[in-house]
Amino acid sequence: MFNLKNWPFLRQIFMVKDDYKQRGLRNKLVKKLRLKGIQDERVLEAVGRVPRHAFFDDALLLHAYEDKAFPIGEGQTISQPYTVAFQTEKLAVKAGDKVLEIGTGSGYQACVLLEMGANVYTIEYNRVLFERTRAFLPKLGYNPYFAFGDGSKGMPSKAPFDKILVTAGAPVVPDDLIKQLKEGGTLVIPVGDRERQKMVRIIIKNGKPVRDEFDNFAFVPLLGDQGWK
Ligand code: SAM
Hints:
Elements: H1 8-15, H2 20-35, H3 41-49, E1 70-73, E2 76-78, H4 81-91, E3 98-102, H5 108-115, E4 119-124, H6 127-136, E5 145-148, E6 161-166, H7 175-179, E7 181-192, E8 197-205, E9 208-217
Parallel strand pairs: 3-4, 3-6, 4-5, 6-7
Antiparallel strand pairs: 1-2, 7-8, 8-9
This protein binds S-adenosylmethionine (SAM).
């Protein structure tokens, strides 16, 4: 029997199809995020432009615009849209900002940042996800700088950054990340235990880190040198 799974090229065309049905579901998702408290219209517009359904396997396509995290393989998840919007809002991304994302995963968050006009550097610790996402995102027209490695140490070769966004739960705020921020720069990172974390924002003011704390979230663990062992 004919199966798109056996025809990667045709499947690709199918996956990026973005007709009125998908756009309608995306608009509903944006409305839901607004009701949940996301106020930055630029974040909402970016979420409204990224074809989230393109990140889903055929069997899960119907769930693409639910406000839920979903498995992407390798024991990892594509983050819940509300979480992506919340972190992006707290990061206060401006067009032209140099942004480091730690935890590329599916690449969805990187696309939202790119839609906001950021120059995105993204690092992933899982080789399978790194290879998969590096091959996939350009097919959707998104081209961040991809790196493979331990993002708990940041990306010293490309530092300093205007913004750093960590999309996995850390036990502590890694010092290296603070050191790789410019003056006025912002780090958004979930910090806590393996199951539950508080969203933390650090802004460098007069050379010193100023910390704010927000709601609780549940991320997969940040691994590596300054993450969970
Ligand atoms: N931002 C992703 C997206 O939009 O799909 C979701 C990220 S997922 C919740 C967390 C990711 O962080 C996983 O892909 C995991 O492999 C990665 N990760 C965990 N520890 C890491 C580390 N030390 N450096 C880089 N990536 C790491």
